[in-house]
Amino acid sequence: MLNANVDLETLISCMVTAAREELVPRFTHVAHSHKADGSVITEADLAMQSRLGLELAQRWPQYRLLGEEMSAAEQQELMSRPGVGLWCLDPLDGTSNFAAGLPFFSVSLSLIVDGRVVLGVVYDPMRDECFSATRGGGAWLNGARLGERRPEPPLAKGIAIVDFKRLPSALAQRLAGEAPYSSQRSLGSVALDWCWIAAGRAHVYLHGKQLLWDYGAGQLILDEAGGHSVTLDGDPLHTVSLRPRSAVAALNVELFREWTAWLGVKHAR
């Protein structure tokens, strides 16, 4: 259950305002550089993390901030303190898109309490779409509930969101040569990938390596929309961890079973 001290509407307002003021004006107007791991970073990532970090601390000082742009040592120190509530922030998910001028990126924030994600918000400033969820409270898109059942195609006629870059090479080659779906997309923002699956805009999902700030909010949103997900090893994604994790998902349970069976995922739930 969501901590009563966090008002979701206030939180969403903070995120939306910050994204409009820190991300949107910088879109197509900032240079970028590369971090040690080769990933892209811009001034917008840092400005957004700083802005939200201050606002979250002012409103909810009982929770500390775990941000993507912190050092690995800082992140590990925060995660090593059991029982301490944490905000987990990706200030700009889809930085490569942002830097290239592709209008598909988001800000993603989750709240972790007692080792579980209890709240998630993902905001897409280009489409003014805000996805949100609280554990046990459902998932929402701009005030409309997600998860309303509608007919979905079988896997052979479905749309898949697949990130080939981080998949095991044998699986990537198999998918390229004998894909079980009709068509495939790779969109470039993990948080929005999860949300678009939750909204029924694509039917199955596969990613080989994502981190907690990438999937924490989006996975809860899909879960609360009635969706299903596991790792390629068949492990649940609910466990909070800093180590990279693969993800297999679908909104529809029949599609999920068909998709995991094709992938050979064992013990899928």
Description of the structure:
This protein has 269 residues and is α+β, with helices and mostly antiparallel strands. It has 2 domains: 8-145, Fructose-1,6-Bisphosphatase, Chain A, domain 1 (2-Layer Sandwich), CATH 3.30.540.10; 155-263, D-Maltodextrin-Binding Protein, domain 2. It is built from 8 helices and 14 strands. The strands form 3 sheets. The protein has a 7-stranded mixed β-sheet with strand order 3-4-5-6-7-8-9, sandwiched between helices. A 5-stranded mixed β-sheet has the order 11-10-12-14-13, sandwiched between helices. α6 (190-198) packs parallel to α7 (212-224). The longest helix has 17 residues, at 43-59. The model has no long low-confidence stretch (mean pLDDT 89).
Number of helices: 8
What structural class do you assign from the helix and strand content? alpha+beta
Broad shape: globular
CATH topology value of the largest domain: Fructose-1,6-Bisphosphatase, Chain A, domain 1
Poorly predicted parts? none
> What oligomeric state is this?
single chain
Integer tally of domains: 2
Q: What's the Cα radius of gyration?
A: 18 Å
Percent helix, as a range, is 25-40%
Q: Which sequence of strands runs across the widest sheet? A: 3-4-5-6-7-8-9
**The CATH superfamily title of the largest domain:** Fructose-1,6-Bisphosphatase, subunit A, domain 1
Could you report the average pLDDT, rounded to the nearest whole number? Answer: 89
Order of helices and strands: HEEHEHEHEEEEEEHEHEHEEH
Approximate strand percentage? 25-35%
Could you give the count of β-strands? Answer: 14
